[in-house]
Write a structure and sequence with these properties.
82 residues; mainly alpha; transmembrane helix; transmembrane; membrane
């Protein structure tokens, strides 16, 4: 299969998988509230990380203005570019 674009020929190739992807059996499929024990440590990590980050984020501007001495417009530029 070839497609024409700006008078140049481009080859499009597809690669088929040699073996099928493993499918979960009906016994392995649980209801949507089933806890995946393999992923539980990552879920706890991200829950605690973003929970702590969310509680500290509102105070970042106050800390930057009082301790570091950054103006509000400079802080906005820094937070925009990060």
């Amino acid at each position: 299969m070839a497609s024409e674009k700006h008078a140049k020929s481009v080859q499009i190739c597809t690669v088929l998988a040699t073996e099928p992807l493993p499918q979960k059996k009906d016994a392995d499929r649980k209801k949507f509230w089933h806890i995946d024990k393999d992923m539980l440590r990552f879920k706890i990590h991200y829950f605690l990380f973003f929970g702590a980050f969310g509680t500290c984020l509102p105070y970042l501007t106050i800390f930057a203005q009082k301790r570091v001495g950054i103006s509000a417009s400079a802080l906005a530029a820094i937070l925009t570019t990060q």
